[in-house]
Amino acid sequence: MNSLENKRALVTGTSGGIGRATAIELARNGARVAIHGFRNLEATEETALLVRSEAGSSYEVPVLAGDLSDAAAAHQVVETAERDLGGLDILVNNAGDLVQRTPLAEMTADFFSRVMGANVHSALFCTQAAAKSMLASEKRGCIVNMASLAAWNGGGPGSAAYATAKGAIVSLTKALAKELAPYGIRVNCVSPGLIGNTAFHARFTKPAAFEADVQSIPLGRSGEPSEVASVIAFLASDDSAFLVGETIEINGGMYMR
Question: Which one of 140, 176, 179, 215 has the largest count of C-beta atoms within 10 Å of its C-beta?
Answer without folding.
Answer: 176
